[in-house]
TrEMBL record:
Its main location: cytoplasm. This is Protein-export protein SecB. PANTHER family: PROTEIN-EXPORT PROTEIN SECB, PTHR36918. Gene3D superfamilies: SecB-like (3.10.420.10). Homotetramer, a dimer of dimers. One homotetramer interacts with 1 SecA dimer. Belongs to the SecB family. It holds the Pfam family SecB. It comes from the Bacteria. It comes from Teichococcus globiformis. One of the proteins required for the normal export of preproteins out of the cell cytoplasm. It is a molecular chaperone that binds to a subset of precursor proteins, maintaining them in a translocation-competent state. It also specifically binds to its receptor SecA. It is found in: Cytoplasm. Keywords: Chaperone, Cytoplasm, Protein transport, Translocation, Transport.
């Protein structure tokens, strides 16, 4: 017998049940994964040094039901690797794209919802996404891309500043 409980499909706590904590990770999964080596197989013989990797990271959150407390949080990572070849030219070594998601039940007041969804939830997902990206780049014939820890608070605050300038909400929450 297992001590874990499956949350109800609608995300609501049944009457008489013990209340859940403020955050419950129901499920995590790879929503999208892409790895391309446009110059294969030539890139492997011409590569003289480790490629320079440009990273882009984004976090999105959306409710799974109208007015509910269950959300999908998506951590999106893109790694573009540029390699300098023997003759001095630059070529794309690989492109890796990952969308790693979690389904979260959130029981907090509305004013705490955004930081929970855009800071704490991706913080929980990040180690798993980091491992997937490292494995796929290593399995693709390159040194593994090992992401440094991400400051999700700074990322969220930066997005808040940008959305305030544009007048758009930070999350779809």
């Amino acid at each position: 017998m297992s001590d874990t409980q499956t949350p109800p499909a609608n995300g609501q706590i049944p009457e008489g049940a013990a209340p859940q904590g403020p955050l419950l990770l129901n499920l995590q999964y790879t929503k999208d994964l892409s790895f391309e080596v446009p110059g294969a197989p030539d890139i492997f013989t011409q590569l003289r040094e480790q490629p320079r990797i440009d990273l882009a990271l984004d976090v999105q959150a959306r409710p799974l039901q109208q007015g509910g407390n269950v959300f999908e949080v998506a951590l999106q990572i893109r790694a573009d690797a540029q390699a300098t070849l023997a003759e001095g030219k630059t070529q794309t070594a690989f492109i890796a794209e990952l969308v790693y998601c979690g389904i979260f039940t959130v029981n907090v007041p509305q004013e705490h919802l955004e930081p929970l969804l855009l800071v704490e939830c991706p913080r929980l997902l990040f180690p798993f996404a980091r491992n997937i990206l490292a494995d796929v780049t290593r399995d693709g014939g390159f040194p593994p891309v090992l992401l440094s820890p991400i400051d999700f608070v700074a990322l969220w605050q930066s997005r808040r500043g940008q959305s305030a300038e544009n007048g758009t909400p930070v999350a779809n929450a």
